[in-house]
């Protein structure tokens, strides 16, 4: 298995993963970055949203009258 490096373009912000030999030949435009940054940029993050359904509060006439007295 070949070793690989992650590079980020300082001009465009593009992130690439290349073999060591190619990374060593990269121009000054490319900077080495951690693999975790490459993973975060290339992998889709699934976000689950949970919606709470609240039933409308219905007050009776007597409950409204009790609140007024307080």
> What's the number of extended β-strand segments?
3
Provide the gyration radius in Å: 29 Å
Mean pLDDT: 83
- Intertermini distance: 76 Å
Trace the largest sheet across and list its strands. Answer: 2-1-3
Short description:
The chain has 70 residues and is an alpha+beta fold.
Describe the structure.
The protein has 70 residues and is α+β, with helices and mostly antiparallel strands. The chain has a domain at 1-43. Helices cover 31% and strands 21% of the residues. It is built from 3 helices and 3 strands. It has a 3-stranded antiparallel beta sheet with strand order 2-1-3. The radius of gyration is 29 Å and the shape is rod-shaped.
Topology:
Elements: E1 4-9, E2 15-19, H1 20-24, E3 30-33, H2 35-42, H3 61-69
Antiparallel strand pairs: 1-2, 1-3
Q: Which features does this protein show?
A:
alpha+beta; 3-stranded antiparallel beta sheet; 70 residues
